[in-house]
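Researcher: Let's try something more involved. This one mixes different molecule types, so please make sure each is placed in the same coordinate frame as the others.
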Amino acid sequence: MPSKVLYIDLSRRRFWVEDRRKFFEEWIGGSGVAIKLLEEECPKNVNPLEPENPIIFAIGPFTSFYPIASKTVAMFKSPLTGNLGESHCGGRSALAIRMAGYGAIVIKGASETPVYLAIHGEKTYFREGSAIWNMANSYTVGRILRDREPGAGARTIMRIGRAGEKLISYACVVTETYRHFGRLGLGAVFGGKKLKAIVISGRKSLPLADSKAYREVYKEIFDALLASPSMKKYHELGTSMNVNPLNEIKALPTRNLKKANFEEAEKISGEAFAKDFLGKRLACAHCPVSCIHLAALRTPYDLEPYFYKTKMICYDYETIYALGSMIGVSDPKELLKLLDEVEALGLDAISTGVALAWATEAQEKGLISTKETNGLHLKWSEAETYLKAIKLLVNQVNDFYKALGKGVEYASSIYGGKDFALAFGGNEMPGYHTGLAAHLGFLIGSRHSHLDCAGYSIDQKIIASRKKLTIEELTEELINEEAWRQILSSLVICFFARGIYKPELIIKAFKPLGMEFTEDSLKAIGKKILKAKYEFKVREGFNLGELRIPERILQTSAPAGEISKESIIKALKLVEEKLTAL
Amino acid sequence: MIACNRRFGEAGVAKSSIHIKSAGGIERGFIVLVCRACVDPPCMKVCPTDALSKRVGGGVILNSSKCVGCKLCVNACTIGAIFWDEENEKPVICVHCGYCVNYCPYNVIKMEEIS
Ligand code: SF4
Ligand code: SF4
Ligand code: SF4
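Model: All components are placed in one shared frame. Result:
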């Protein structure tokens, strides 16, 4: 069981380690430990961009022991929602933190000048970051740190781009170039601390209570992962395999969700990308599935004939939705260029796409003019113009782009167009317009994400069985799912393997590590973690009754059936009762 | 890396004698570093204490009790396939057991008999 917490104070440039064994025993790791550390470290009502807002990273007891326990949880107060920020990232982050000897890392304070942290085993170094601050491209920052720091092969390199430095509320943290702490603005919190990057490495061995049993359970999990048909699909096409099916059932948000199907979806489908662009597949460290897909995009030099550069660009379902169908872009090459720019600048692709979609419709409706957009005529499908808009946004050239950089909730409160501002609890929507359960999930989930309580999957079951659920049943199912996911995100297992890591298997896998749980005890901890998150949110001013419901989701029909405002309001009341009673 | 370590009854990577790293950025692909079982092993030749002896079938066998932890073998392995166990201050050298091969689902590595 990991138990050591590395504390780093950027203001005083000091670090120390504390053993918090009891804490990990009670709260498992990952999300569970992170929310408790956040409670301890985050002062009430703190401004997310002030030094007092802490950054917590936590990994779980299965990290480095079992395959696909490959994610790190980050917690902080989100600059986008002004409330609980939680973001998960794979790559090599989890393995590196564990191999450096830690279960969690807490970063407090802020540096006066740009800095980057190099954590190698027991040592933490505060390194000069001015030379890599304000670099145009996050890829370059990675390349420089790769050469300067030791630990190749088992290290993580987290860094922010210009978006984080400019405190864009949905700036992300890029790790290993193609993985991200994407959502809710961790990049801006880094920026507020003048923290450009973190490199972490180590080479530990971990003892076992029963190494024979361990090897057996390991093999069972490994074989199950490889035999699973859904894992095979993630491996072959990646998550972008979802584009076609979601489009077919009319659940793929298109042109700011004016519609839920995209005439040209086929061109940006997982199948099309795999056929024409797939250049490489990758995995997070210690995962045999390798769902990460990189497209090879060959672009000619402007003036020189027969001169090309070939770029590797990561794509997946969410990013294809946000910078594809949501803004009407159907040319895969143009879409890849947008993805590349967003990666280079360090923005969250989902929020960026939804922000551009809202701005396009706002301009269509005359709420903003070319005065606000700095001369741009934003038009669905015109990727060139969107590329320019992304640059203006990150450079924060005027009040409009400053507002847009705070998310569509904020921008629409100034310029109007709230009914088509697709944010839930302040967070821009992910790519599922399946029905009521999905949207409820975005509203009530701790992170306002589709991964909280998986409403889209309940909707899909309803579509397939044509069996409707009552509001009572629906909310019950959403909360139960979210409570259980607290266990998965405390262990911290990639959610793609949720079908394999069932309670029985988790209990069995704990034993060789010397830990005993029952299904009931695990479920009780899941509820306790969810409750802790909800209490933190309420402490910071969250109120389920005050959530804004974007009218647009009621106007565009969804495959699981029409969504009414009354049903949402009723559900929110029920959820409030259930969460309070947890 | 993780499979190799597991073979020795522990989790993690400290005792691993296979190492994977990117070829200068993930976009460029990966390099697998593992002992290639030299017929005339340079690592063995530089060992001042004869802690390394020739293994039948290629490569070397480490006699830990003779090893003084001088790291000469690490430098002598041209391809960088000897790693270091920080806890015991001894080299980690591939024993060519092939356990890792069972955990490579994409057939990148395999065991081969060499004559
Ligand atoms: S399935 Fe994909 S995201 Fe999940 S751990 Fe494996 S490579 Fe990473
Ligand atoms: S460790 Fe290096 S030098 Fe020694 S036998 Fe293996 S490959 Fe050859
Ligand atoms: S570290 Fe040990 S095995 Fe290697 S050369 Fe020195 S004595 Fe020989």
